[in-house]
DNA sequence: GATATACGAAACGCAGCCGTATCGGACGCC
DNA sequence: GGCGTCCGATACGGCTGCGTTTCGTATATC
């Protein structure tokens, strides 16, 4: 492969270090293509709404330049999504509650971002494009969940969380509550904080007398 | 309107009671169209993936029969979604925990249904088709949330929930945790139950000594 | 400057879909 | 049995997109 086609390992961006027979591929064009793809994937209704021609037009690029890198539309979207990683930053400096508050506010704020809107469209088309969804989940979603997982495990180790608590359930609660709304409608004021405290404290009446300082 | 077009109030299914000049519209065809529309909306990637021609073909119907009832594709989808109501049934016979368990299991089981897959695609296209999403939210989503709201309020009235608990936050936790996964991937065994108990009891370590019977 | 590749632009044939129009026939009421 | 409407089928012009090909040009290394 590398002999005949000058090492065109699609969409890896691996610049041929040792050799470069002709004009090298434009890194600028590649970035513009990826940006345009993500924009369209976020704006249009799903994978079906993204067209190569629209991507080329928005990126200011010829279709040739796209097909030289990715063999078809689905591969293009896969590549673009892989480049769209946005891992959460582990605050890692406070109590579990403090760390979760930081992350929850971040999750709440991100909802209107391109990233979040892409998520809906990719998840919705999961059955039509299972490989696309699987890679997205592995490359983008999981690293983000891993940060939450780490924070929660720290809390368990420190005894700040109830010993039997299941981190996966906690992640589902936090992420679900904050992300499971169409990007269109807004979160109420103070919602991320309320979610964190509800997850930590529960909403059930206590079987034992509880210190009623609030949370 | 009713004079010139024989009362064709689009997609209301209101049979002209007093008068019926010509051949009445086939109720069977209408149902087939709606079913086909929902099927396609669930299977394809979003609104963009639904085509009138595909609906007609799947429903075994001429395109004319569709355009006679709905003026365009978006109206067709709106109409089909309105007919796809599936309100939750209020169990209404046990404690809050028992009722929530019933509802949570129902939510978990519904995830792979056509209904849930439509939801993802409609929510994802919310920005491209805001009116469609708004009506869907009002006609389908809200009645379902209302059931949860009623159960939670009952719990508050009975003192089974902590007095200050916010039902909206609780709904977000429950629905989010159970529904915010692509229809593709499965819920772990016992997940709905774990979610309910996590929401009721919280995951935080208790400030006071807690009866360690589990829940 | 020779060579090799990438670039953007344009055009291709093919396919799908939109929304409309036109069929012959079916149906229900008067 | 006549009338009005609906039925499914088919075809239309127009548009958009796919994936390929062909341009002339630009930009690297040798």
From TrEMBL, chains A, B:
- Keywords annotated in UniProt: DNA-binding, Transcription, Transcription regulation
Q: Which PROSITE patterns match?
A: HTH_TETR_1 (PS01081), HTH_TETR_2 (PS50977)
- Stored InterPro entries: DNA-bd_HTH_TetR-type_CS, Homeodomain-like_sf, HTH-type_TetR-like_transc_reg, HTH_TetR, Tet_transcr_reg_TetR-rel_C_sf, TetR_C
For this protein, the record's Gene3D superfamilies field holds: Homeodomain-like (1.10.10.60), Tetracycline Repressor, domain 2 (1.10.357.10)
Domain HTH tetR-type: residue ranges: 27-88
Coiled-coil annotated spans: none
Region feature (Disordered) = 1-26
Residue spans binding DNA: 51-70
Per the record, the domain of life is Bacteria
Q: Where is the composition biased (Polar residues)?
A: 1-12
Keyword DNA-binding among record annotations? yes
Q: PANTHER family this protein is in?
A: HTH-TYPE TRANSCRIPTIONAL REGULATOR RUTR, TETR-FAMILY TRANSCRIPTIONAL REGULATOR
What name is this protein filed under? TetR/AcrR family transcriptional regulator
Q: Which organism is it from?
A: Actinomadura vinacea
Q: What is the lineage of its organism?
A: Bacteria, Bacillati, Actinomycetota, Actinomycetes, Streptosporangiales
